[in-house]
Amino acid sequence: MRSFFYVFVFSLLVTLAACNSSSKKENAETAQVLNEGMIKHEVFGLCDTIRDEGASVRISLWLPSDSGQVSKTIRDQLNTKAIERINSYNDSASIALDPAAEKNMKIAADIFTKNYNDFKNEFPDAHGCWEIELTGDTLMATSRVLIYQMYHYAFTGGAHPNHFTSLHIFDGRTGKEREMKSFVLDTAALLKKAEIAFRKLEKLAPDVHLEEEGYFLKNNQFFLPANYIFTRKGILFYYNRYEIAPYVKGAITFTIPYGELEGIVKKELIF
Q1: CA distances to 1, 58, 154, 248 from 163, in Å
Q2: How big is the chain by its Cα radius of gyration, in Å?
C-alpha cells in the first residue's frame, strides 16, 4: 500500500513538472510570436510641396507576421483602426455612397482625396495640402500581452495640425484587444496616484485649484486619461492635446513605477 502511495506521488510530481514545462514553453512561444513582425507601408495620393496642394495618406504600421490566428486577429484590428482614423476625416455622405470605405484602406484614402478636391473646387485660393499620417509600433511584448502605440497626425487646414496617440493592449492568447481598466483592482487609488504624479510633473501644490489654473477639469474633478498602459517600468499615463490642457501644452505624460502600485493593478496578468 505504501509503495502504491509513493508511486502515486511520484507520478503526480512528474505530471506537474511536465505541465509546468509545457506552460513555460507555450509562454515562450507566445512571446516570440508577439515579437516577430513586419512594417506595412502604404502611401495614397500626393502632397505637391511645390504647388502647395494635394492630399496624401501615409501609413506605416508594425504588424505581427506569424501566420497563426492570434497574429491575424491583431493585424485585422490594427488595419481596422487605421481605416477608422482615415474615415474620421471623411465626409459621412461620401462613405454612405461607398460603404466599402469602411473595410478598404485605399477606398477610404480615395474618398479623403475626393473631399479635398471638392473643397479645392469650392475654395480655389486655399493653400496647403491635406495630409494624414499613421504610424504604429510595439511598446512591449510579453508571453501574455502585446502593448501597442499608434500615432496619428492630420492636417486639413486651420491654425495647426492634429496630433493624437492611442495606446492598446492585445491578449497574447486570443489576439483580442482588452480594456486597460480590466487590469485595475482599485480605480480610486489609481486616480489618486495619477493626480499626485500629475501635480508633481506640472509643479503644482496639492491645494492648487486645477481648473482655475487653466486645465480642462469640470468642477475641478481630476480624471484618468483615455490612454494609460503597462510598460517595463510601470504604468504610462498619456494625456493627448486638448484632453486635459490647451493645445500649446502639448501631450502630458508620466509614468508611475510598479513599486507604488501594489494592490492597485494586476501586474501578474502582464508579466
Answers
A1: 73, 14, 7, 12
A2: 24
* Segments making up each domain of the chain, as ranges: 32-178, 181-269
Sheet holding 177-178, edge to edge: 37-48, 53-64, 130-141, 145-155, 162-171, 177-178
Q: Residue 8 CA to chain centroid, in angstroms? A: 50
Domain 32-178 = CATH 3.30.565.40: yes
User: Is-above-0.70 flag for pTM?
Assistant: yes
Class of domain 181-269: alpha beta
Same fold, 32-178 and 181-269: no
For 117, list phi and psi in degrees, rounded to 5. -60, -40
Cell of 200: 508633481
* C-alpha cell of residue 261: 502600485
Q: For the segment 17-57, what is each residue's pLDDT rounded down to a tens digit?
A: 554 555 444 555 555 668 799 999 999 999 998 999 999 99
How many other C-beta atoms lie within 10 A of the C-beta of residue 245?
20
Q: Residue 265 and residue 271: Cα distance in Å, rounded? A: 12
Query: Would you state the torsion angle of the CA atoms of residues 91, 93, 95, 98, taken in this order, to the nearest 10 degrees?
Result: -140
Rounded CA gap, 117 and 129, in Å?
Answer: 11
- Is beta strand 53-64 parallel, antiparallel or unpaired with respect to 252-257? unpaired
Question: CA–CA separation, 195 vs 67, rounded Å?
Answer: 43
